[in-house]
Design goal:
The chain has about 450 residues and is an alpha/beta fold. It contains 13 helices and 20 strands. The structure holds pyridoxal-5'-phosphate.
């Protein structure tokens, strides 16, 4: 933890392209007050240039060590078509975890060879969709191989490339539910099945191979990748020695964290590179590997900081024990605090008046006492009508939102070069109701 000086905090905000100008909060050089008034709240605001910047930063770091690399954006983090188009225009590839995500990629003009489909608990329908559309499947269980091969045969498609998700047993993540490796975890195949899996894949006719891990999400200390990567590289070496396989790609998954709290430093990309890319390069240089493509699959790292939620305070409640600031965004809008106990920094959009510091729970409007977006936050005294910005909402924000309590999901606004563009309409009540069918006897 570093010394939390005022300058440091300003720098922390600037890193996310947030700053106060004449006491008004600006995001990507656009006034948050103007955005809130123009589009109404709650609303997701997304900063195009920050997504491009994060992609370039990561790409440069990888390319400085190993040229044959690909960044596959994990679209579960943010599947807005405009965001996918932005990343596609930067040269990104994509990680999909469902056929719906593949469909979304196609709608954004992304081609099948840019996608790896890392699902789990695949159905035959999932396989059919992927194989028909020439999307590479990354299997999650040995038992799925037979069914996938059958789908290829039934569709008369040539079995080209396949990959397995390997569970290296060393997981990490910001919450127990985001740790995705370990003996008791549902994902991937363990070490003891790896040889059998690739042997069988060869036998049923697959010709090209990749490997994959994803150990968890929200990893801010790159050394938390150490053990998993070490084990993974050992498994791959053993695989190559035993089966005479050459690998098209070796995928290290995502998981790269971001500093949600002001006392957190950004992920040290140089250290991450040392651990992931250098280890991989040593493996390749040892021989037997034909320059496979190095893949990583970040979601959060690319989009989390590039989005804020603007919300308005409607209620200041002092219940005699505690102060609550009630806002119009709840866990329907951003579920991470409720689901994982996650911290999202919350700041006022206007600090023009000198106000005393007060400690609040920032509460959403959902009818559950767990609907607290920020606990025990010390802020300049708040008033009904004030706007607040909830930071770092661009990953697992909108994609995990819901219409619980029949509250329509908010609109999304893209800001770029001082302009703002609505990239998703807010839902209406009729949108929420539109798939319901009333049987005749109830009409
Ligand atoms: C297979 C896979 N790859 C990549 C990611 C992206 O993770 P993150 O957003 O932490 O980078 C996830 C997240 O759940 C995942 O399951």
């Amino acid at each position: 933890m570093r010394d939390k000086t005022k300058m440091d905090y300003k720098k922390w905000l600037r890193n996310k392209e947030l700053k106060y100008r004449d006491n008004i909060l600006y995001f990507a050089d656009v006034s948050t007050i103007e955005l809130a008034e123009k589009y109404s709240t709650p609303i997701y605001i997304i900063n195009e240039q920050l997504i491009r910047k994060r992609y370039k930063q990561l790409k440069d770091v990888l390319a400085s060590e190993y040229k044959r690399n690909e960044i596959h954006f994990a679209i579960k983090a943010n599947s807005n078509l405009s965001i996918l188009k932005i990343l596609n225009s930067e040269g990104a590839n994509f990680d999909c975890s469902s056929t719906g995500e593949i469909y979304t990629c196609f709608k954004a003009g992304i081609s099948p060879e840019q996608i790896i489909y890392t699902g789990n608990m695949f159905t035959d329908e999932d396989f059919n969709f992927a194989v028909k559309n020439d999307v590479l499947v990354n299997l999650d269980s040995l038992s799925q191989l037979k069914r996938l091969a059958m789908v290829y045969d039934n569709l008369g498609k040539e079995k080209n490339a396949i990959s397995f998700r390997i569970n290296p047993e060393f997981g990490a993540g910001h919450h127990a539910h985001t740790i995705t490796a370990g003996k008791n975890i549902k994902f991937g195949i363990l070490d003891n099945q790896v040889i059998e899996a690739y042997k069988k894949a060869k036998e049923v006719g697959f010709k090209k191979f990749g490997t994959h891990i994803h150990i968890g999400s929200g990893i801010l200390n790159p050394h938390n990748f150490d053990k998993a990567i070490h084990k993974y590289l050992g498994i791959i070496t053993n695989l190559a020695d035993t089966l005479d396989i050459t690998f098209e790609f070796i995928d290290f998954g995502g998981g790269l964290g971001i500093p949600y709290r002001p006392e957190e430093e950004p992920l040290d990309l140089q250290v991450y590179k040392e651990i992931v890319v250098k280890g991989f390069k040593e493996l390749v240089e040892k021989g037997g590997f034909d320059e496979p493509i190095l893949i990583i699959e970040p979601g959060r790292y690319l989009t989390a900081e590039a989005s804020i939620i603007l919300a308005q305070i409607n209620t200041i409640k002092n219940n005699g024990y505690k102060m609550f600031a009630g806002i119009n965004a709840g866990f329907n809008t951003l579920i991470r605090p409720m689901m994982y106990g996650s911290y999202h920094h919350i700041i006022p959009c206007d600090i023009s008046q000198e106000r005393e510091k007060v400690t609040y729970d920032i509460a959403g409007p959902i009818c559950e006492s767990g609907d607290i977006i920020g606990k025990e936050r010390e802020l300049p005294e708040l008033n009904e009508g004030d706007y607040l910005a909830i930071l770092d909402a661009g990953a697992y924000g909108f994609t995990m939102s819901s219409s619980y309590n029949s509250r329509p999901r908010p609109a999304e606004i893209l800001v770029n070069n001082g302009q703002s563009y609505k990239i998703r309409e807010a839902e209406t009540f009729d949108d929420i109701l539109k798939h319901q069918i009333i049987p005749d006897h109830l009409k």
